[in-house]
Amino acid sequence: MKYNPATDIPDLSGKVIFVTGGTAGIGKEAVLALAKHNPGRIYFSGRNAARADEIIAEIRSESPSTDLVFVECDQSSLASVEQAAKKIVSGSDRLDIVIASAGIMNVPPAVTRDGYEIHFAVNHIAHALFIKLFLPTLLHTAELPNADVRIVSVTSQAFAMHPTGGILLDDLRTTQGFGLVKFTRYGQSKLANLLYAAEFARRYPQITAVSIHPGVVRTELLASLSFFTRTMAFLTHPFSMLTPAEGAYNQLWAATGDKSKIVNGEFYEPVAVPGGHARRSRDQKLAAHLWEWTDKELEDYRI
Q1: Is 301 a known active-site residue?
Q2: Residue tagged active-site, from 43, 186, 196, 204
Q3: Within a domain: residue 50?
């Protein structure tokens, strides 16, 4: 599908949007594209306040009336996520679109200050906490006239690199550095993104929740890889490597495109193409187990 955000994103009047990782890469590009279509307000998160100021200045030079709010957040800290979510909820009584774009890839073995394997913590648990704390507002918005509430979770085809068994839930309070290689830890977190979106759609069908693969994109995530891994990415995708702006297309389509063409809970490859699945990515039992595990881990966090 050919996609042009300038013409394919509809008017967003009145809609309140939140984008995680909005200060860099495809998250930043999503913010820039959405801001051109008259949203009610865009919240975006990240760790770099100076970069956020630059983005706000860039947008306001073209659209002075655009309502932009930067929310500083370190997704390796659940306390930081909780603080950011509460700031957003206290600032708006509606939330129409959540784009879970922030993520890390193939970093060295580590656990977060909360004690979780770092890929899983940043890529899955932090976003799950945002969604949990947003849920009352999302459900309220879904009851409004002409409501169209959506959650877009950025996953990756790399979910297929998950460990045997899918997600090692009993081992996530370790670095998993001895049992899994970095690609497998990353793949496990991306499988969680896909399964959690599908399970959310089953539990809350009044909200559209999908996961998307952005494509292979020239972003800071790719730059952080080893020389060999970067070279392999370029060699295997010589004509399909995307710019960050192009890498945002699939999430923009999922967040704002024709709802009648979106299957709730589905996984999409760029742009708007139902994605290829493996056995574990269709595993509803694993998705339910992941939901229950996550819910228990986050039970002490509430608005």
Answers
A1: no
A2: 186
A3: yes
Q: Looking at the 3D structure of the chain, how many domains does it have?
A: 1
Q: Provide the pLDDT confidence category of residue 279 given band limits of 50, 70 and 90.
A: confident
Tokens, residue 211? 């996961």
**Counts for the chain of helices (H) and strands (E), in that order:** 12, 8
User: 242 forms bridges with which residues in the sheet?
Assistant: 217
Q: Pick the closest to residue 245 from 56, 5, 66, 42 (CA basis).
A: 5
Please identify which of the residues 28, 116, 190, 268 carries the catalytic annotation.
190
User: Contact at 8 Å (CB) between 70 and 101?
Assistant: no
Alpha carbon distance 111, 293 (integer Å): 18
Annotation says 15 is catalytic: no
Tell me the CA end-to-end span of the chain in Å, nearest whole number. Answer: 40
pLDDT in tens, 65-83: 999 999 999 999 999 999 9
Q: Return the amino acid letter for 19.
A: V
Residues paired with 70 in a beta bridge: 44
How far apart, in Å, are the Cα atoms of 94 and each of 17, 102, 197, 245, 260?
9, 22, 20, 27, 23
User: Tell me, what CATH number does 56's domain have?
Assistant: 3.40.50.720
Per-residue pLDDT tens over the stretch 205-260: 999 999 999 998 865 554 444 443 443 343 334 445 799 999 999 999 999 999 99
Closest alpha carbon to 248 in 120, 99, 103: 99
Is 109 within a domain? yes
Condensed to tens digits (0 to 9), the pLDDT of residues 1-51 reads 899 999 999 999 999 999 999 999 999 999 999 999 999 999 999 999 999
Q: Per the domain annotation, does 302 fall within a domain?
A: no
pLDDT at 236 (0 to 100): 33
69 lies in some domain:
yes
Task: Transcribe 98-142 into DSSP letters.
Answer: EEE-----SPPS-B-TTSSBHHHIIIIIHHHHHHHHHHHHHHHHH
Domain hosting 102: range is: 5-296
